[in-house]
Amino acid sequence: MEIEGYTIDESRLPRHVAIIMDGNGRWAKKRKMPRIFGHRTAMKAVRQAITTASDLGIEVLTLYAFSTENWKRSAEEVSGLMSLAIRYFLNEIKSMNDRDIRVQVIGNVSGLPEGVQKAAHKMLSETADNQGMVLNLALNYGGREELVHAARKIAEAGLSPEDIDAEQIEKYLYTSGQPDPDLVVRTSGEKRLSNFLLWQIAYAEFIFDDILWPDFTPSCFYKWIVEYQHRNRRYGGIK
Prior knowledge:
Layout: E1 2-3, E2 6-7, E3 16-20, H1 24-30, H2 35-56, E4 60-67, H3 75-91, H4 93-98, E5 102-106, H5 114-127, E6 134-141, H6 143-157, H7 166-171, E7 183-186, E8 205-208, H8 218-229
Parallel strand pairs: 3-4, 3-7, 4-6, 5-6, 7-8
Antiparallel strand pairs: 1-2
Helix pairs in contact: 1-2, 2-3, 3-5
């Protein structure tokens, strides 16, 4: 497939792409605007990423929207982000259904404000029967917290130590039943994982792009896919 000058092998697409959407605040600061302006502008990039992934035939797209550590930000910024989340959930239901996208929220949903929980529940319930791409929105998410959550669920299930294996742990993760990410991308030039999908990314390919998230375009996604397809994934073996 040729698209915008990129040659993409449709037989070697990553099944699951995960994106750490970083750089909104710096993008706004460069324009002498408040950080929330960057977050608002970034919503266009979110829509473009979802549309592009869906059009390419990606099975699962995970977007890191708000981490458990992000509560440390100013009350004004956190409040603005929660308002954006509510607006997104309520306004994007039709577009998700039009594209047959099933939305899931991964993270500690009970720790989110009630308004966000209600809006998220509405989107999840109204897209639950869709059969196309799965969109994971990581909200109030932390990789370590997810593993603690899984461990507690295993304990509640009463499993004996000898019955606990990787398969059992995966069963209790937020992404249970999904393929692990093949490709993880972080924008803004930062080269760290920030507590993101720590179990699931054991064999993922990583791309760290200098672009600030609000500047994302579909061409960025195509570039990432081409770079991914040039990698030799050996999973510890020799090829």
